[in-house]
Here is the input.
Amino acid sequence: MELAYFTFLSSGLFLGWSLGANDVSNIFGAAVGSKMLKFKTAALIASIFIVLGSVFGGSGTTATLSALGNVNAVAGSFMVALSAAFSVYFMAKTGLTTSTSQAIVGAIIGWNLFADKTTNTAVLLKIVAGWALCPFLSAGIAILLYLLLKHVLKRIRLHMLMQHQLLRIGLVCAGAFCTYALGANNIANVMGVFVQTAPFDTIHIGILTLSPAQILFLLGALAISTGVFTYSHKVMDTIGKNVMKMSPFVALIVVLAQACVLFIFSSSTLRNALLSVGLPALPLVPVSSTQAVIGAILGIGLFKGGRGINWSIITRIVIGWFSTPIMSMLICFICLFVLQNVFNLTVFLP
Amino acid sequence: MFNIKFTLFSHTKELEQKIDELHDKIIEISMSFKKAVHLFLKEQRSTNYRKLSKEIKIIEHDADVLRRDIESRLYAHNLIPDFRGDVLELVENLDKVINEFDEVAHQFYLERPVIPQIYHDDLKELVDQVCDCAENLAFASRAFFRDFTAVRNYSKKVYYFEHESDKTTAKLIDAVFSSDLELAHKLQLKTFLSEVADIADLAENCVDQLLIYVIKRDI
Here is the structure.
């Protein structure tokens, strides 16, 4: 049973690996590309904080995904995660901006349709609203941070060398915060669909208690870390040197904005705190870290008087919001059919 | 952790200090050069001039040591990796200005040009302008590491003094060639005047580069 479970889990682990290879590069790409930080240091920080974020902060977004569709058979979970991985791969090939969050949501809806379960439209709307808000929120936060940090730097007039050293420390801290938030927000994409079928028992290590879901998150986080160590260096090089050539100062703001957005969309504590003082709180939904990065860069670019909004990027993001889930849903539906009727596996429980 | 923090900032502090010292050297050599030319006009190649010329040589040597030290520290401690090239270029340009001061002072010592009394005031004025130009370059470059607005202010002064030095040089060369001096003497004086004026030109080139760095770096 255990071995079979791990075989089914492999699709989620693969999804985790690809998340580690791609999304962590957005966080540390500029710092590593500009040689402000060594790759090994970045990868180590990323791995530690992804594990922490996933294990201790991943429950909020997982609950939202579970509310959307409660995948209750491990073979079904396997196919949901695999469909998401395939659609991310195909969408990336077409050059459209995509994310695992959108792919997994589509695949869960595909499972709901196949299993004849009702999709909670209120939850779905909440998730789509989160995706739509994510780049704009990121842009707004980036502009605010840009103004604030620029003002502070102009006032304190630090020596350039000291400024750089502090910037380097800032990039490490912001990177750590961001990878924590990424783990907390995106672990649901990787492991969320396996939570219902997790065969683990609660583990006690000293004062630490890990629930079955947290053990699953730990495994997912280790898969993400493997992706970071094995493949993200190449992506970081590309991002740092070619795709997003930006100063370390701008890189710090982009990373911080991304971290804030991911954290806002995943922290139950923050949500409860906001609600307790009567403030509106955002839903806990897995969002796209890449779109948060794009939002932050566009925000700063616009504020600095760039050439205006790059509509092709915006269009690609919006197309991604719809095309990725639809593709993922179709792949999942077809593959579940094959899995059930050709391989005779139980892909859902009534 | 505290150890790491301490090392991180101690390297930075040391390098900051070295860069500041290099700027001090420009101001020192400029003041010594001014004093040396005034002395040469008064005493020709006297013992005092010889001493002053040696002092200038020592300042130039110290500046070279500082430059090498700054360059190696920038690489050894991986400081400002994205901006290291520009800082290295700046340091080398500053060193060129210092070298030119030393070279001209040494030329005076070796060639012992005979400068007629009627040109003394204009030459002193030229030297003052050139030295003001170099000193403002040092202020601009120092400001570059802390306050970009001040770089623009000092750069304006560099451009002003360089322009004034060009005018004074042209006026002097014209006067020299209108005089009854031997052609060889005229040519020697022209070479000297041009070399003094070259210091201001080098300072101007350096400030041009500095302003480009400011544009590149302005957040």
